[in-house]
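2 proteins. here.
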Amino acid sequence: MAVTRRDVTADSVPGESPPGSGFAMKRARLARLLLATCLGSLTMLIFYLQSGSVLEAEVIVGRNSSPSRTSRTSLQMLYSSDQTNLSDIQASLKSRRERLEEVCRSHPFKKQALTPDDLRHLIVDDEHGLLYCYVPKVACTNWKRVMMVLTGGGRYQEPLAIPANEAHVPSHLRSLADFSASEIHRRLRSYLKFVFVRDPFERLVSAYRNKFTRSYNSAFHRRYGTEIVRQHRRHPAPEALRRGHDVSFAEFLYYLVDPRTRRQGPFNEHWERVHQLCHPCLVHYDVVGKYETLQQDAQYVLKLAGAGDKIHFPALAKDSRTTGDTAAGFFSSIGPFYQRRLYSLYHMDFLLFNYSTPTYLQLR
């Protein structure tokens, strides 16, 4: 059974011309048709020549091209189940989709169309009909390993056998931005699109711990740490200005809420908001997995892809996880003023993905 969905915000389609007769009416219709054809061709030309071009698509599952498998696609597998008798995980995923759609309807975003750069976080698996938007600090290393196994044609057998640094080599996986306009549209129409999210502040603390408290991230310290120290520390020592190796959590947050930071360009992907990385109000995700239910959600996606019996999503190392208690400890040294400003900055991620305001915050 075909399932119809709309995947990227598109202009409304003009209706048919009103009935009429005579040579003048025919000429007018022909002129409008020629004009529409020219405008359509110009739009496609602009797409190829400009990175700021607009992507528009109507999602119709089972129409046009589909993934290489002859059986039902991953997307059809998701929506073909009896929607009145769902399992717990199916009901949970359906609830998350509906929540996302409701928030998107009630909180219109300024951005109404996608550019190729907006699609660089969407990883493509043509064999299984999957589009995965990766979010750093939400098990994306393991998901990239899994995607390498899925797309590797037998080259990789076990996700954890792939070194972490190999999983992040861009050439090992294809991004949706690598394709032509028509190929992008086809995949958006017929592939299952999924994203995994996490409590925004737990993700933020995890990013800080990994990027600013680990000695092996010296390149990251020089790129961001030195700037943070220079802008947000009084009387910094010369070594700190040179190495940027000892950024405090408070200094990191001052950097995030500083308007100068956002004027310089987008955030680094490790602390960029999910709605800015994956654009969930323009790309309508079929599955919103959560870090808190990672194993069951990930395995369900693999089941939809027909790979659930072959690949098991790697378990997280418990000693490396950032929990709510961990985040509460870091935020205990942050005053209410900066807590409020930071919460405002990440508010849409809390809202879109139905995360409660952390109880450890002092927002009043």
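next one coming up
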Amino acid sequence: MSEQYDVIVIGAGPAGYVAAIRCAQLGFNVACIDDYLDEQGQPSPGGTCLNIGCIPSKALLESSHHYQQAEKQFAEHGIRIGQLVLDLATMQNRKQKVVRDLTGGIQSLFKANQIAFYAGRGTLKQNNRVEVIDHDNNSTTLNAEHVILASGSRPAELPFAPFDGKQVVDSTGGLAFDSVPQRLGIIGAGVIGLELGSVWQRLGAEVIVLEAQERFLPDADPAIAKQASKLLGQQGLDIRLGSNVESVNTDKTVQVAYTDGQGSQHLEFDKLIVAVGRRPNSEALCAGDLALTTDQRGFVQVDDHYRTNLDRVYAVGDLIPGPMLAHKGMEEGMAVAEQIAGQFAEVDYDNIPLVIYTHPEIAWTGRSEQQLKEAGIDYTSGQFPFSANGRARAAGETDGLIKVLADAHTDRVLGVHMIGPGCSELIGQAVIARAFGASSEDLALTMFAHPTLSETLHEAMLDVAGRAIHRAPSRKKRP
């Protein structure tokens, strides 16, 4: 006899495990299925983000930043050390411990919320039956009133650069090198390419990033993208825009042929990371007699309530269109659980924070200046540099700025864009402001602690009306 549940969630990444926990909080009997195994062959819920994405990359970014500080910046603070030694094995072990602690925490949360966890691959069948094939090839059939699909995504592969797990790798392989490559190539100057490039450049690799687009970070505000390109270039990241890779061959080295504005080019690397985006894991989610509707790119099509074309079957996270971000998936996981329970819930897709964890960090929410111009929306703007912020000066972290865009008629904050120290945290203030429909004046009239980095946001809001205090007057007319 098969097990019966109110809700079955296929996938235990950020969208899936959050959906499962919220369903359990709402009183549903819940099961969650996930097939990921860690390096020891043990079940490891958490999806790409916790296991091989967001968390391990941030651990290595943190460690490599400390290494770079010790190498180049400690002396400025009066800290002198002897010979600097990189212990990459210890750095990688620390990364894995961080991952194990967090994935183990999810299993504890499942137990605390009485969620049944099945380690294996789940396949949806007729009448909301789900077959689970575990890692010993044993089969179990579960039944559910509702099924939530949250099977996540995987790195996109280029046909002329197949992953071999050794010389040509995806983001997972790019986090697991056991030695620092002397020459590292990266295809793609998006979030993943820039973050992984930063890690290995800090640790001593010569890094060249090949990007097909002519514009750097086209989704970011142009002022922020320009500053980011300058600062990352100064750090040693060689970012080559308008570079269309045509072939990749491996022998003792990785040979990459590409074309740019000057014609045909050729480079050789020790390792090559392909970071050209991700694809939804929508294949083989359903049995052959079920026709789950997807678009040409494989994204599952859903309505405003995350319902698929199949009765009482929902999809969230990287499976559906939109930014492939863990926090976006988490919000959808909570929203779909509450909608199944008959509650009102929605995700504000116009106020999603986006962060690139380079150093300095890059973050934004809302519309860019270019988007406002294209939409014909009248706006005002203000900005303030971290170089004029006391806390940034004290920390020696003065690169970057914060830029605010507000509606010219209502003064409502339409977008906030920043590059600088702590921006992954500072952007949260902007998200909250926009969530409550704040005007730039609202934040200009709010007291911020001194000395803090957040005063840079305060001054940028003041600058919308030409009232910034800790910088020379702008050309704006002051009231």
